Amino acid sequence: MDRQLDLVRCFEEERAHLRAVAYRMLGSLSEADDALQEAWLRAASADTSEVENLAAWLTTVVGRVCLNLLRTRRTRREDPLEHGPEGPEGPDRALERGSGADPEEEALLADSVGLALLVVLDALTPAERLAFVLHDMFAVPFDEIAPMLEKTPAAVRQLASRARRRVRGAAPGPDPDLTRRRQVVDAFLAATRGGDFDALLALLHPDVVLRADRMVIPTPEPVTVSGALPVAQGAMAAMARARATEVALVNDALALVMAPFGRLTVVLRFAFAADGTIDAIEVTADPAVLAGLEVRLPD
Questions:
Q1: Residue 133 near residue 45 (C-beta atoms within 8 A)
Q2: Is the domain of 160 the same as that of 181?
Q3: What is the mean pLDDT of the chain?
């Protein structure tokens, strides 16, 4: 009985930590809560008489549950934008639908992790994601992760290393142009989030062209908008989406990724004029195209 009370007490004390592990593994607050419930059911029915460190053991239980969920998700993966009886959803509808969890709480938690990181993690294999999240984010030793994956510690180390390369990519040398463009993209996002129309207008070339695929609105055909004024007005109309948007490298070019609850739904890619202003924006929401993009974190 005392051991069971110790388990209950430890689980409650570690709940925030275990939830953070599950969220970084799964990228969804509702799935993380489901994983914690499943982990507790497994823990409560297990013999813990020989477990020396209950907190570490609970972390491994949550890790195993999340690994199973990731593997199941991978075999029946759903597109981020679901097609219902009324046709494809636009990004705003996808954001509203979310994961069934409290949107405000999930948005705050996603902000604390980094939306771009969640998108990048989603591209890893389940084994890579487990190794990277547990070791690099929560300092779980490789020899404790190895039994979950039925691999040697050395093999798990290689998985984490491979995941690390995919998350960060090869470290490029200093690039003044990239630095200046990063400043422009950061300013574009800040102006959109803050509703600063004049600041946004100043970042756009007078002849800027925005092209959006038919899934963005959605519309029967792709959309093209020309001129700084209408492009800026369109960006202002997307203020609500900007909260779930972050700077990332997409196919090694600076971009904005829109990822409500860590699920990639829209990518904005930019081209720049000689004076440093934005002269073209390509907006993509087609799941088939998004699936082929390589997203990683900028330095």
A1: no
A2: no
A3: 81
